[in-house]
Input
Amino acid sequence: MSQTPPPDTSAPAEGGGYDPYAIQQKWQARWAEADPFRAGGDDDKRPRKYVLGMFPYPSGDMHMGHAENYAYVDSVARFWRHRGYNVLNPMGWDSFGLPAENAAIQRGADPRAWTYENIAQQKASLKNFGTSYDWSRVLHTSDPDYYRWNQWLFQKLHERGLAYRKESPVNWCPNDQTVLANEQVVDGRCERCGHEVVKKKLTQWYFRITEYADRLLDDLNQLEGSWPSKVIRMQRNWIGRSVGADIDFEIEGRDGVVTVFSTRPDTLHGATFFVVAPESDLAAELAAGASAEVRMRFQAYVDSVGRESEIERQATDRPKTGVFLERYAINPINGERLPIWAADYVLADYGHGAVMAVPAHDQRDLDFARAFDLPVRVVVDTLAPITGAIPVIDVDADGIPVGDETLDSIDPAKTGIALTGEGRMINSGTLDGLSKRNAIARVIDELSARGRGRAAKSYRLRDWLISRQRYWGTPIPMIHTADGRIVPVPDEQLPLVLPDAAGLDLTPKGTSPLGAATEWMQTVDPETGEPALRDPDTMDTFVDSSWYFLRFLNPGDPEKAFSPKEADKWAPVDSYIGGVEHAILHLLYARFITKVLFDMGLVEFTEPFSSLINQGMVLLDGSKMSKSKGNLVEFASSMVDPGADASRVAMVFAGPVEDDINWEDVSTTGAQKFLARAWRVAQDVSSSPDAVWAEGDPALRRVTHRLLADAPGLVEQTKFNVVVARLMELVNATRKTIDSGAGPADPAVREAAEVTAMVLDLFAPHTAEEMWEILGYEGFVGLVPWRQADPTLLVEESVTAVVQIDGKVRATLQVPARIDADALEALARGDERVIRSLAGREITRAVVRAPKVVSFSTH
Ligand code: ANZ
Output
């Protein structure tokens, strides 16, 4: 896209007015020439910091929502440079994936050409934004020299048994004609196109992330305090560990056992029926032996369930449906016959796809039992007191239930409410009288002794489905031999490069377009030399982004994916910054792959991102800026008017990082005025660089030094908006000193202007550099070390506050001038003279005017 020419108003102004566009051009050229932000090598003795923003998709030009993210990343990188760190802040593109491919299909263009054009455009925009990336390390995941290492990673996982193929029901988007990971299904719909997702049975490649479920869960504890608690919570829920037992049931007339997972093995005596997921192999097998009528009903049921989303199936408020399969399971604890049903509330890919149904104590089972007239047997007396348990009913001081409830009056079969609370076991043979905890332990013991059950955990997390039936991704580096083996493409043949898109039909058809690349598909069996076929699928792009932060350490290295030596020096990432939309999928996958690399001995850490900042979204007309909705402010155009610095300052000032901001509330005019004021202050300074600051106006110096002292803490807590507010305060205070008192020659004015330039560099780097030059310095303000605050200037001014009781002054207090009303009132209430004067009388009213007056009334 062509750059809009600068508007006349910002063309170099005569008489030396603040000219943001000219300043921006000037400093970008200087940075490009001097390359001052490149990360230091081994001879650089400064401590290291790795700052990383989540890299973008090149799916079109960027808007201010993207810009906000880069603004924060840049502030953090610049901050650590001022603090004396050797900062690595690289940039790259997540350039494979559906958006590029779909856009390419719509425009009839080659996805490759389209992608790289967009990258060039985005890169230009980012440079115009005044970002301080190390541009020597750019990577694109769609480059063969990057995805070659995805292929390496895939084969490493395959060697370790962590990449495998299986046939199972998968999420299928009928519109995009591809499978989706669970993570890409939002409210039963395709995350990309919004089309309803259905289940389809396919053979696909998976990564065995479930093997790492416990570590992914337990290691979240390490991140507590450094990651937003919301993200940690979302990850925990996503992994969803449940603890209970696996119990083996025999089925009449069938060899072998069927295992179910239950969180309540204590209720085993209360099982009255058995449910299997309709789409499971077991259901099909059992139905096959049933009567013709049941077979027909079952088939129709399976078809209708295939059209339901997982969310619908799990909803509690919909009528229960199912088909009795005319077969029986045998309860291993008491030999009872349990009728087997196929019902959609049981999911094929959770636990073992089958459940023992205990309607008295599980609401979904109860709803089902009531719908189909199945027996309900209470096995936990929830009215019986349990020491230590939180009573779910009213009890007296001795723990004896009060009120007129009886087991009969709360019978779930009548009330329709399952008894899920704690209580004592009844109707349960040897378990009778036990509490839930003891009953669980006992029943697991009994089942284990008979080889019929064991303690077990179950996870909501499933294995990561990584194959996609699309063109624009990393080819899966495996070969299907004529005799049915699946073997890796030999290392020396990697990268296995994508065939040219020209001549391929990319429109979604349900099978990978690569399958039609006849020549490309043909290969030979590496062992026998016989003809063999390639795998036609490509990898989910989340594979690409699961380890890219390591590739930035030695991009382009033809020998290896990343250098463990460099990883040792730089990684894990100290500060990772991006949108909360990646709270689950991307972060979970990157955490998983990091742990695999750790197990391979290639990295020495187990978590990839030591701290995480999630920025909110930029909204326009009440919703997230987006191309499809047409509600966006283009990144490229805003670089010209109001200019990069004003856009950045305005966005940062609009609110806390994690909050969403409305573009309507973002005042670029206000930001531009502030920047012009700051710039004019530098213009006005008339003392020389060797002025003795200590001789300057102490009031202004206090404002300057308070900023120096507070800003680091504020930045580390990501309170960037507060830092901008404090800069505005400093610029105003400086102007006041210039216009009154000692005027522009006061050394405190020079000191304030210099500190303003240094701190302003975090948000408005072009203006900051210009100020620095005006102040008589050579070199970049972006590399200036942070100035130390003078502690003697941080001592707070104090004032005398008076405390009145019923109109008479009873005490005076020395308090900080900036005290707030609550703190002042608390001090007054605690003062000894005040307490003595009150002599036990109660304060009925308090009027506080901080910092000077507190007035109490007692009647
Ligand atoms: C018997 C029972 C009795 C259960 C009771 C609960 C309460 P969470 O906590 O979410 O892990 N379940 C097992 N596999 C299932 C599947 N594939 N589809 C649907 N439900 C399934 O849930 C575990 C409980 O969900 C298990 O414990 C099982 O029902 C059910 F009073 O077993 B329970």
Summary: The longest helix spans residues 720-739.
